[in-house]
Design brief:
By secondary structure, this protein is of the alpha/beta class. The protein has one domain (2-250): Ribonuclease Z/Hydroxyacylglutathione hydrolase-like (Metallo-beta-lactamase, Chain A). Helices cover 25% and strands 24% of the residues. It has 9 helices and 14 strands. Strands 6-5-4-3-2-1-14 form a 7-stranded mixed sheet. The protein has a 7-stranded mixed sheet with strand order 7-8-9-10-11-12-13. Helix 8 (192-201) packs parallel to helix 9. The two termini are 19 Å apart. It binds zinc ion (2 copies). The site of one zinc ion (ZN) has 5 residues, from loops.
């Protein structure tokens, strides 16, 4: 399985997964034109994507979903509540999925997990490639880590986890107190420390890549996020790459298909920028 982030953070999120000739887009936080431009930069045409998976309806994750679905006729997988919040999705292309119920897609299996966030029915996903068995966790926009996340994200080859803010920068930054409360609260966003603690908890021998998502432009920096998460992962046996996903550039974040099968664990080639 290979993955690219096409953008990450409040200005728009999308993650492309590829395995066995199948492509899956997770979130569509840009309009179709911007999405097509970013996909073109990595040599992918939107028509080659077989499905769109949405984490939740907030604009930075779904503002392009309805138009892209119409344009490219993608089936859209999300919670029923998220789909209800996106009424422009054509009824026959709605694919509601339920927390804890695995859903087979072309080339992948999707495992939705309900997460605490101030949206209608937000999900994180564990996604397994049919061809290789490679397993990837994708979780952003969550204010806390419920036990079902811990269970679903066991033995992943790659973790894509939120590291939204540095607690000190948020506390001392320009955001008004109520907004600070919302971001740092139990239905807001994970801090670097929380994201790092979760990564350390999930660092199994299978783990080969850690990608940090949804960094705040105001209350975080890639250096801070990578440093905090590395400090926590340094207490585990994990010695692989830790990469803060760039905000606006399409970027390859891992390639789990460089070796056949899932094991032994190898270092993953990361390349920054395109
Ligand atoms: Zn978001
Ligand atoms: Zn959100």
């Amino acid at each position: 399985m290979r993955a690219w982030t096409l953008g990450s953070g409040s200005s728009g999120n999308a993650l492309l997964l590829e395995s066995g000739g199948h492509r899956l887009l997770v979130d569509c936080g840009f309009g179709p034109r911007a999405l097509a431009t970013r996909l073109k930069a990595i040599g992918v045409v939107p028509e080659s994507i077989s499905a769109l998976v949405i984490t939740h309806e907030h604009v930075d994750h779904a503002q392009g979903a309805e138009r892209a679905q119409h344009k490219w006729r993608w089936p859209v997988y999300a919670s029923a509540a998220t789909l209800d919040a996106l009424p422009g999705i054509t009824a026959r292309w709605r694919r509601p999925v339920r927390a804890g119920v695995a859903e087979p897609l072309d080339g992948f299996t999707l495992e939705p997990v309900l997460i605490p966030h101030d949206a209608a029915g937000p999900f994180a996903y564990a996604i397994t490639a049919t061809a290789s068995g490679a397993r990837v966790a994708v979780a952003h926009d969550l204010g806390a880590v419920p036990d079902p996340i811990r269970r679903a994200f066991q033995a992943c080859d790659a973790l894509c986890l939120e590291a939204n803010h540095d607690v000190e920068l948020l506390r001392n930054g320009p955001y008004p107190w109520p907004l600070q409360q919302r971001i740092g609260g139990g239905r807001g966003h994970l801090s670097n420390a929380q994201g790092g603690a979760l990564a350390a908890e999930l660092a199994s021998p299978a783990l080969r890549a850690v990608v940090l998502l949804h960094l705040s432009e105001t209350n975080n920096t890639p250096v801070l996020a990578e440093r905090d998460v590395a400090a926590r992962l340094g207490r585990t046996r994990y010695r692989g790459p830790i990469l803060a996903a760039p905000r606006r550039a399409p970027t390859p974040v891992f390639d789990l298909d460089r070796v056949p099968g899932r094991r032994p664990a190898v270092s993953v080639q990361l390349s920054l920028g395109v």
